[in-house]
């Protein structure tokens, strides 16, 4: 047994022990036993082209390297001094490359237009119970963080997604904080003492923002505390009709509870961005671990989940996390992200009863990947060089996973090993590429001649990703029946009985599902 297998067994055992230690009234299993029809869909890959800055135009970066042919196709032309042009002159490779995407958004595209063209579908599916992942990919200084978060006057896809969710659950929000998400897709009930602890944690986070930060966040969104109005990032077109949502149409008396988390992967360590940062440099931040629940689903252990009632609150939580995020100045970017950050939104669907039942849990994760970079161009040294190495390595492993997924779709080729477990990032992405969610990729590029070779590499990676076929279900089948969670002793007995009587079916079912 190797080290990775031992760690996996240990983390699963810890999750089972933690689950058994909870009172039966605390934990709810939110998955139905009925398996729904498997859906097949190519991975959606969108391209967004950043406009030139004044400094770039002054430095003659505009050399017509990129031509937008139509809404789906772009052509790259290698500039004179690029590596690609030198290779083509030697007869190695080509000087022009053409790429197709799900949709291409030019430099003139507004934040609102980009959101409507990319995010409406995946947010709707999240509201209907399907987990969703959106991740940005590109070189440093390509506009990834702006696409995700936006600015004070023009919000990105994150605040707009929150607006869409809160507009939809308007008037149906669960007012209490006594039902909280845990593990990967479960919930637990909190007692009065635990609820007060959650309230104090949230109050401390919001109070940590200075007065000017709070005023800035108000310009991002004008949502009220009850979520009854949409923010400045919203428009009437973002509001879903009742007919658009299967969950709330089937269950008209449904309440919703929204929770968020925010963490970063820095140098292959996971840090909670909503945790208190040590005042002293001698104190180290708490490192979080990835564990697996009883279904083999990965989750970040001890990650803070904060209950929010509006987009305004979520934007404040986002600002708190951004203050703790690892940033640095490089030659290519004054505010370069030195870590991958993941902001997750969990939507709990509850029955409208005196003692609400959990009907479902869905999650939308928005990942702002750190940009790939060449160290000699970014002039990174010391800590910056180490950060760049870890960033590039995790992106390399992500590329290997995408390539292996594409290869495994061809029955004529030998199945390839998918190295999901070789990095923290791909381990967390794994469920979305293995039938337990829906993924979407946003490629950000600039048009600068000086970064043409890096941009070409990004485009080639996206071309492979676009050929990956996703499989996902509206409801993920759970091998563990509902009565497995009716008590600690009953849990152990039911688990043993269930495994003994269904051993063969558990081994065969995953193969049938493929």
From TrEMBL:
Native source organism of the sequence: Podarcis muralis
TM spans (from-to): none
Protein's UniProt name: Kinesin-like protein
Cell compartments where the protein resides: Cytoplasm, Cytoskeleton, Spindle
PROSITE patterns on file: KINESIN_MOTOR_1 (PS00411), KINESIN_MOTOR_2 (PS50067)
Residue ranges annotated for the Kinesin motor domain, each copy included: 42-468
Region Disordered, annotated ranges: 1-35, 217-236
Record carries keyword tRNA processing: no
InterPro entries from the UniProt entry: KIF11-like (IPR047149), Kinesin_motor_CS (IPR019821), Kinesin_motor_dom (IPR001752), Kinesin_motor_dom_sf (IPR036961), P-loop_NTPase (IPR027417)
Keywords: ATP-binding, Coiled coil, Cytoplasm, Cytoskeleton, Microtubule, Motor protein, Nucleotide-binding, Phosphoprotein
